[in-house]
Amino acid sequence: MSDHERAGIAERLAMYLDPGTDEPLYRQIVDRMWLEVVTGTLETGERLPTVRQLAIDLGVHPNTVARAYEELQLLGVLLNRPGEGTFVGLAPPDKPALERRAQLERLCRDILSQSEALGISLDYVIETLTELRSSGRDSRAGRESE
Questions:
Q1: What pTM did the predictor assign?
Q2: What is the pLDDT of residues 129-139, one digit of tens each?
Q3: At 139, which helix (H) or strand (E)?
Q4: Pick from 7, 69, 64: which is nearest to 34 by CA?
């Protein structure tokens, strides 16, 4: 990928990223790249910048770009070819994974809505989920050793 091509992708994405909104940056990247694929601005087979390079070009954390790429791969928009890079592709979406993701999002929205109604902070919700996950592992480990 030439520097010019890489810069073009980054410049187009950067024009639409707004860290001041409630929408996470990774989601903004997903939405914009999806639109570019659908409109043909990004073509099937086109190689994308590495996670690290796009993060540098956009001035965001590499995890932000990695999460966007992962979601786009799940949706079948991007293909990762080990040793070659990430490409725009037309892989069929992993339907069971998409269904699990949709179900998880519904559960999370319910938890957030109910916790907000009860005046419980997001930090406390996350802390509680982490504790429950840890205690679940501990109890499963105890049962397995019996």
A1: 0.60
A2: 889 888 876 55
A3: helix 122-144
A4: 69
